[in-house]
Automatic annotation (TrEMBL):
Annotated signal sequence range: 1-24
PROSITE patterns registered for this protein in UniProt: PROKAR_LIPOPROTEIN (PS51257)
Naturally occurring in which organism (per UniProt): Cellulomonas bogoriensis 69B4 = DSM 16987
Name assigned to this protein: Sugar ABC transporter substrate-binding protein
Keywords, ordered alphabetically: Signal, Transport
Amino acid sequence: MRTTRNRGLTAVAAGGFALALTLAACTPPPEDSPAGPGDDGDRDLAEGCEAFEQYGDLSGTSVSVYTSITAPEDQPHIDSYTEFERCTGADIVYDGSREFEAQLPVRVQAGNPPDIAYIPQPGLLQTIVRDFPDAVVPVGDLAESNVDEYYDPSWKEYGTVDGTYYATPLGANVKSFVWYSPDAFADAGYEIPETWDELLALSDQIVDDGGTPWCVGIESGDATGWPATDWLEDVMLRTAGPEVYDQWVDHEIPFNDPAVAEALAAVGEILKNEDYVNAGFGDVRSIASTPFTDAGFPILDGECWMHRQASFYAANWESADPDVQVGENGDVFAFYLPGATTDESPLLGGGEFVAAFDERPEVQAFQAFLTSPEWVNAKIPEHPDGGWVSANRGQDMELYASPIDRLSAELLADDDAVFRFDASDLMPGEVGSNSFWTEMVNWIANDKPDQDVLDDIEASWP
């Protein structure tokens, strides 16, 4: 998830922003590109707005955007719309809510949907499309042509429901990372583990040395539980392999299949091991009440050694200490969550998708803008300390200030990478953003047995 998922920082890198504007000014649309949604023929353009001519004159219009991305992580998004607003005349009205997953269906059912929604789970998109026919507007020609040009075809598949293309990609993230303190590791003589067995051996060594290796938190408002589903998904890729993972996602094997039980047991070797968790917060049960946004912070105090969380977690460190440096030689960095062997490098990731609930020209234009390299290259510099990544192949990789983000973007663009999208985000909403979350909370908070957890999730599959 997810999103949800707190992404971004409020600072602006002035030099990077200037470069983004230069890129926008120097990248006019091709002559044979589709006409913009608000195209009104020849008109005077403000300086540097050539790339925005395709959207037409949208003066006096507004577009409402509803998302799970809240303050302070919302500001980079808001700032990234500046040139679209300046060059088209449209006003983008941003509304972030931690209750997004629960409230979006309510708003749609009440006939009061936003113009645009950033949906962090393709499974939730499928549920909304099927439960509320005709509420979501199919993607327009300009946005679809951008996706065809700049994204791997799999991203289009994630936004397609029953053969109709409904949602375009927004941000992306790589989840297979473990955050740690390079200095603490060096002082203790610990080395980065390269296999799963080495990861467990390192955890045992930390315990033997008097430390607690892991700190974990899965609280996330109405979305509480999603970080635990990420643990199971990452381990499922490692114990069962990508083909069985796909079968699990598509329900070609049941949720309580032995392959899933094996993966959950492997997760339990860490998350339900009293010697391993939960440094800085309490016992195993404290994982359920610890906000995922804060869960890695004990690393800074030396109470915790490792925290498994996605690339976007880079944005959270500043909340603990504005002076925290993220990097290989900084206060915190991350290493790849290892596979069974050094030859196996599965990569779990996720992202948000942009769905439109109105076909007004300004709404269609804004959705298309969010698929463009101009938007991506304006958005990246809004994160000088990291925490946001795109899978857009038209992006400028040199704009990434964070080595974690640059590595993530390169991995996402690698055709040879064994990448799989977050399973719960692809599953039906009744499972992916409901029973899967709640049962993983029960597994942690109430010590619910593994098999009962898997059986109850399987029983909820529509």
